[in-house]
Amino acid sequence: MELLLKLSRLDRRWIFLFIALAVTLPFLFPVELPTRPSSATAGVFNAIEKLPENSVVLVSFDYGPSTAVELEPMAHATLRQLFAKNVKVVAVSISPEGAFQSRKALNGPVEELKRKVGVDWVNLGYIAGADKALRAMGSSFPAAFARDIDGRALNQLPIWKRVKNYDSFELILDWSSGYPGALEYIKVVSAGYKRPLGVGVTAVTVPEYFPYLNSGQVIGMLGGLRGAAEYEVLVKQPGTAAKAMVAQNVAHFTIAGFILFANIVYFLGKRR
Amino acid sequence: MTEAYHSLGIWIAAFLTLCIFSFLYKDNPFYKFAEHVFIGCSAGYWMVLGYWTMIKPNLVDRLLVGEWKYLVPAVLGVMLLLRLVPSVSWVSRWPICFMVGITAGFQIVYTMEAQVLDQVNATIVPLWGNATYGQTLANWILVVGVLTGLIYFYFSVEHKGPLFGWTSRVGIWVLMIAFGAAFGYTVMARVSLLIGRVLFFRDDFWPVFLHTFGK
Fold it and tell me: To the nearest whole angstrom, how far is the Cα of A187 from the nearest Cα of chain B?
């Protein structure tokens, strides 16, 4: 009992140390834990699987370096799936940091699957105006963009001949860490233009988007690192997210253990 | 030379990461240094990004090719900055009014559709006769959760008695469960950020470290 009460006054730095160990050790001594994809994640996967060959998909990158650890693995996994199915990709960003991240995210899958810029994919870069920009794109992509992120004239690119407005896209995907991002796409693209929309969001914003998933306003949702890991399992290419989920699980058990322990000590102390 | 710059960048990133983490032990000059560097760099980064991604392509370039209608937003922008001059700060209210008006008008249609009508529509679900008992239970939880949550936020009547008293208490439970779920996801997000830094040390810093010391 005395020991328990002493532990209740444990210096919080010990907790930090335990969390640090919980996150670090799984990377030093890797173990495999099963990951079962949720229906929310499967929604995006199935929508991409059903896409006909040569269809065009709009992918919006609306996150910065601070949230890349959660969103980049999902962007990689979906881009690989899209390119492997010979689906054309039009990349865009309504968040200024997203344009830099889109280059980084596209590089790997484009080189791996040898996709040609202007034919198989194009990166439009950043467009300012958030929801106003989305509305401008809905009216006319050619009016909203003249050049791609690297300065190529879009009207010279074969892929651009197929892009007029949101109706040109079989599916729209948005990887988002906040404003502007998924909510703007839900308002303008899903509610306004009635186009199928899939989103990938950071874990902290997942509860905000569940109502839109439940109502069918988004066809699927990848939530944080877990969503990314589930997607990697679905495309049968376990990567960064799947490995990081082991550390995530161990950290969660550690935190849950501390919460449980603190409550037991609290109630025992109260009884005394 | 590029490789040397890359290595230098990685070393600086690793040093600043450790400086920030040192706060977990206690407040110290290394943490304060990293905090100040972060704030200064962020301000500079967003200013440069704002100019090259917003002001230049949307205003400067268009004025340079003679699209004079863009003088209107340019003037509104200057009026907004007059907020910094106390004697004429009132001028900034006009562009603010313009922005608020435009945004409200623009948002009202889509917000109403996406966040009110479609959401209300999704709450109108069958409470019996579903394909599975699980679906029926889920629908009951949805409807009861929404109604009791709404009653909790209805403050025109005192929360007493069976209708407003009990249901608002159920509403509190619904809200607490929702907050618990949100907290769980927040923990997951924060742990993800820590994992991001651990992966940085393993995948980016460690190879550079070995290379620097010739191993």
Answer: 5
CA A86 to chain B, closest CA, distance in angstroms equals: 31
The predicted-structure confidence for B73-110, as pLDDT tens digits, reads as follows 999 999 999 999 999 999 999 999 999 999 898 889 89
Chain-chain contact of A128 with B187 (C-beta, under 8 angstroms) = no
Residues in A closer than 8 angstroms to B122, CB to CB, are: 211, 214-216
Residues from chain A that touch B198, judged by Cβ atoms under 8 A, are 23-24, 27, 247
Instruction: Please state, as a whole number, how many other Cβ atoms lie within 10 Å of the Cβ of residue A226.
Output: 24
In angstroms, what CA-CA distances link A163 with A118, A137, A138, A147?
12, 10, 11, 13
Which chain A residues contact residue B190 at CB under 8 A?
204
Largest pairwise CA distance in chain B: 77
Q: Are A204 and B189 an interchain contact pair (Cβ–Cβ within 8 Å)?
A: yes
- What is the C-alpha to C-alpha distance for residues B114 and A183, in angstroms, rounded to an integer? 9
Give the distance from CA B12 to its chain's centroid: 27
Q: Of how many residues is chain B composed?
A: 215
Is the pLDDT confidence value at B215 over 70? no
Are A137 and A166 in contact by the 8 Å Cβ rule? The answer is yes
Per DSSP, the three-state class of A221 is strand
Nearest CA in chain A to B102: A132
CB B186 within 8 A of CB B206: no
Helix locations, B51-132, DSSP H? 61-64, 71-81, 93-111, 118-123
| Three-state DSSP state, A124 | strand
Q: CA-to-CA distance for A23 and A35, rounded, in angstroms?
A: 18
Determine whether the interchain pair A224/B192 forms a contact, defined as Cβ–Cβ distance below 8 Å. Answer: yes
What confidence tens digit (pLDDT) does each residue in A112-158 have?
A: 999 999 999 999 999 988 888 999 999 999 999 999 999 999 999 99
pTM reported for the whole predicted model: 0.89
> CA–CA separation, B148 vs B29, rounded Å?
51
